[in-house]
Amino acid sequence: MIRLFFVFCLLLSSLHPPADALAQTRKDTLVVCLGKAKPKSLDPAVSNSRQVLTLYHNWGDTLLYRDPVTGKIIPGLAESYRILSNGDMELTLRKGVKFHNGEPFNGAAVKFSLNLLKKPDSRVSQYLSNIKDIALLDDQKIRIEVAKPIPTLSELIANVLFIYPPGYYRKAGKKGFGRHPVGTGPYRLVSNRDFEEMDFERNLEYFGGPKKMAQIPKLKVRIIQETILQMEALISGKVDLIRSGCVNPEQVPFLKQADRVKIESADTLRVYFLVMDAQGRSGPNPFMKKKVRQAVNHAVNREKIARNAFNGYAHFCGSVVSPLHFGYEENVTRYSYDPVKARKLLAEAGYPEGFEVDYYAINNESAAEIILEDLDAVGIRAKPIWMIGKWDQFYKKFINGEIPLAFMTWGSYSIFDGSALLNHFFMVDSPACYGTTPEINRLLKEAVISGEPEVRKKLLSKAQKRISDEAFWASICAVEVICAMQKDLLFQPAADEIDRYFMATWP
User: Fold this and answer.
1) Which residue, among 43, 99, 90, 86, has the nearest Cα to 64 in the 3D structure?
2) What is the pLDDT of residues 241-251, one digit of tens each?
């Protein structure tokens, strides 16, 4: 932190660009720093990183679309849709839409896409498991058939039912498509230089729809691995925008000192938390005892984390889900910061001298370090394994059950329903589950099939209360998404953490 301050001061003293230099802003181009981690594929079914998901929604489309201003789900590639009494959805598709390679968009492409996304190796297969098939009713109409009613069906279709061109995908294969994807979206990929520099241009044949034509003709995406170099690039005008979610809150005070930089933020679904291996998937460990998990909850100073590591862009919400999730329950068991009680619980659990454990951290190093210090203070000697910027590697180990303790984050695939997090982490058959009970599993299963919003709220509420009672996680905070950009760029981050670069404009 101190090192960053002095380095940044040097940047500010030497890199205040003259007004005439920044006046040469490329009015036909938007240069975005996507982050520090280089993706291995641009296919969102292969990589579930937020940067890849964000890019998809710029070069691709979905049948339905979330309006970032109203939050409502509206037709996208579909012209209209309706939910039938049995839970199926019928959609009328737009006519004349083409993929970037000229291939026609139609019901066959939707059917191909669903089959592809439901394969076991797809990162979104579990979200679509209750969709049985796509029935092609005629040239323009399809029916999405479900095994049972899905309360979040419209959100799933808007966020994770990605649409692929069958002909091109078969020819390019998974690897080829991941390197040079083809969609129907407002931007089309022109070049990809080893995933470090990707150039897009406006799709001149775009059908429009709710996204409309891209406002800025060219989109250049860059990976910059060092935080300080990201900041330098923004201040000097080499970069116009640092992707929402890539700006560490600790950077904000420094960035605000730069003449031509502004900060925008928005509340999001994203939550940060500690996952403890209560099931012993990584091998026998202390977290299999409830008192140890309770001790961890009492050991963590959440207020300090929100204040120091997140610079106030965070708040403790008690439950494992965010207040923006449907079904959020505020009245759950809360664990006060109480190191004395934490040590007492550890002793009662049979660990009076504490214990050692591997500790994986995937995001916000400052918050991870505060947690490390808090755990050490009560006798839990956590050995840090830093995987900052290596989400795909970490997540593979996580779902394989190899991690005893992890500080991580989840954005719920931008699905504003508690089930998008709860089902993923607390249902027995999910590979991401490290702790649950038969009761929690039953409550979540009942919420999946219930078509009554108030009934679902009660079920999700009970599940959250039981999760907190069992202390399966140490919930840390819900956060705002922060975006840094050139002061004259007109752009707003969204609550779903999907940057819509096609909406950005220069004055």
Assistant:
1) 90
2) 999 888 888 88
Question: pTM score, two decimals?
Answer: 0.85
Which three-class secondary structure string do you get for 358-424? EEEECCCHHHHHHHHHHHHHCCEEEEEEECCCCHHHHHHHHHCCCCCEEEEEECHHHCCECHHHHHH
The residues, any chain, with a CB within 8 Å of residue 148's CB and separated by 6 or more, are 87, 130, 448, 449
| Mean predicted lDDT score pLDDT of the chain | 93
Residue 92's H or E segment, with its range, is strand 89-93
DSSP E strands in 147-224: the ranges are: 187-193, 197-202, 218-223
Assigned CATH for 267-481: 3.10.105.10
Alpha-carbon gap, residue 447 to 425, rounded angstroms: 15
What per-residue confidence (pLDDT) applies to 12?
52
Residue 23: its pLDDT value, please?
42
Alpha carbon 360 to its chain centroid, in Å, reads 18
Dump the DSSP string for 8-40. Answer: HHHHHHH----HHHHTT--TTEEEEEEESSPPS
Q: Where are the domains of the chain?
A: 267-481
- pLDDT, residue 139, reads 85
